[in-house]
Write a structure and sequence with these properties.
Blueprint lengths: L2 E7 L4 H11 L7 E7 L6 H5 L5 E4 L12 H14 L3 E5 L1 H10 L8 E5 L8 H10 L4 E5 L2 H10 L8 E3 L6 H7 L3 H7 L7 E6 L8 H11 L6 E6 L5 H10 L6 E5 L13 E4 L8 H8 L4 E4 L4 H5 L5 E2 L4 H13 L2 H18 L2 H10 L7
Parallel strand pairs: 1-2, 1-4, 2-3, 4-5, 5-6, 6-7, 8-9, 8-11, 9-10, 11-12, 12-13
Helix pairs in contact: 3-4, 9-13, 11-14
Length: 372
């Protein structure tokens, strides 16, 4: 009889489907049956089919039911836990973790992993108190990077450091490679010229992604880089501001805003270099997608980013358009052989350090998983 595993998440955005599959695939289907539960979101058969889990449950909880104590959801999860008798529980983000901490007040739970994907998730006084009062010895708190892990250790009370660990986000190398469009096809789809040198950036147009610094750096190099274009993929609250900034800096015709693109990583090979300009980044999964596409990387040395990039590209201070402009100019002036070299360095790092196989090794080496 197979043992039951619970993966409990907040919502089913594309990133979290991939992450839940990352955790599902750790468990041998001959020995384990995996149930994925989503706190919010209506039942969706297309979403269900994207999972590798045995069962996907949509609680479709309204907003008011997940505020404050969340008793109705706690009761549902308590019933499910009694029925399934899970051997391991993995929660992504705070609210599912909070709910399972409350469930543990009524029944004995197996070892639980509460995975945090952002910085400062547990820094508020209310959350510090919740963890201090409700956490049990079988509960482990994990950050998706060492930076997030260290942030958790600084934030919470009464949980020893050895129960706060790192469980990196990983990438399905083969699946990602198989979905990438080749350079010319990607450019054609995006209506981009085959002759331009394209700097790419993907992400929400929000403050912490800091496309403002990126546009300012691009404006500095544009006079010396006549073939250069900057392609920004994504949408967000700062879109109008950023477009106006490009206009003010006289580069509006060379900064291309594509808006939101479904499965945007598929177009990564369109770029000659990928730029991560974030001022805050817990991990930086898009960097792994660029590395698998063999695109050279320039990134800011913030929080979890250095752990991802390693030696695969230059790391620069955040909010420094001068330093960023210098590295962008270096990339523009590099030979195609040099760019290909750095692309391959990144690819090998992603494959060796952030593959699903590597994650499986790390997960099963945890002492708490030796006796499952």
């Amino acid at each position: 009889m197979r043992k039951n595993i619970l993966i409990f998440g907040h919502s089913f955005g594309p990133q979290f489907i991939d992450i839940n599959n990352q955790y599902t695939d750790v468990f041998d289907k001959n020995q384990f049956e995996v149930t994925v539960v989503y706190l919010t979101g209506e039942p969706d058969e297309a979403i269900r089919q994207k999972h590798t889990a045995d069962e996907v449950i949509f609680l479709n909880s309204p907003k008011k039911s997940i505020r404050h104590l969340k008793m109705s959801v706690i009761k549902k999860m308590l019933t499910l836990c009694r029925k399934k008798n899970f051997a391991r529980i993995i929660c992504h983000r705070y609210k599912p973790s909070y709910i399972m901490m409350w469930v543990a007040q009524f029944i004995k739970l197996p070892p639980c992993f509460f995975v945090m994907h952002e910085l400062n998730t547990l820094s508020s006084f209310a959350r510090k108190m919740t963890v201090a009062v409700l956490a049990r010895e079988t509960m482990f708190f994990a950050g998706v990077s060492d930076a997030v892990r260290d942030d958790i250790r600084r934030s919470i009370w009464r949980v020893p450091a050895e129960r706060v660990i790192t469980l990196h986000n990983m990438i399905d190398v083969e699946k990602t490679e198989s979905q990438l469009l080749e350079k010319n096809a990607a450019r054609k789809h995006l209506n981009l010229s085959a002759d331009d040198f394209l700097f790419g950036n993907m992400g929400r147009l929000v403050k912490n992604k800091d496309q403002e610094t990126l546009i300012r750096a691009f404006a500095k190099i544009k006079p010396a880089c006549p073939r250069a274009k900057l392609v920004i993929v994504g949408k967000g609250e700062l879109e109008t501001f950023l477009k106006n900034l490009a206009q003010e800096l006289h580069v509006a015709s060379d900064v291309i805003f594509t808006g939101f693109l479904q499965d945007s990583f598929r177009y990564m090979k369109a770029f000659d270099a990928y730029i991560s300009s974030s001022s805050q980044e817990a991990f930086g999964r898009v960097l792994l997608e660029a590395m698998i596409a063999e695109i050279p990387i320039i990134a800011t040395a913030v929080h979890g980013v250095p752990e991802v990039v390693g030696n695969a590209g230059p790391l620069i201070p955040a909010k420094n358009p001068e330093k960023l402009a210098t590295e962008m100019l270096n990339a523009y002036q590099s030979s195609s052989e040099t760019l290909q070299h750095w692309g391959k360095v990144g690819y090998l790092r992603a494959k060796q350090t952030f593959s699903h196989q590597k994650f499986m090794e790390i997960f099963w080496q945890l002492p708490v998983n030796q006796s499952i």
